[in-house]
Amino acid sequence: xxxxxxxxxxxxxxxxxxxxxxxxxxxxxxxxxxxxxxxxxxxxxxxxxxxxxxxxxxxxxxxxxxxxxxxxxxxxxxxxxxxxxxxxxxxxxxxxxxxxxxxxxxxxxxxxxxxxxxxxxxxxxxxxxxxxxxxxxxxxxxxxxxxxxxxxxxxxxxxxxx
Length: 162
Known about the structure:
36% of the residues lie in helices and 33% in strands. By secondary structure, the protein is α+β, with helices and mostly antiparallel strands. The longest helix is centred in the N-terminal third of the chain and has 15 residues, at 13-27. The model has no long low-confidence stretch (mean pLDDT 94).
């Protein structure tokens, strides 16, 4: 089945939520504490993504197969520094190249907008995601953080285009 990547609209909320919550509840089990996973309620996720999809700050892209949204990413440019704020591929669609398509589309848009590099954050315990980002040219730049709401360390990854 072919996959198309396009800009998201507020009408995509339901599909984005399916992907996001599927990842949050399946992919993050064992990476985040159970309390953090369980704290992402349907209502909390809906409020978050409703705000993101309505915002003019940054861009949300979705990967679509037929009528179904199977992946989502959000990116933004701040002067010449790009940021990939999120990248989720539905658990049943993982491993099929959708994450690569979304990340490549986001980085191409950032480069076209003038970014000479980009940053993203990934949970340090999320080895599959770290390997994926490294395969696409991203490198841990030595910066880490631990946000109280998640309770797990994250590492910052950087991609340079110079």
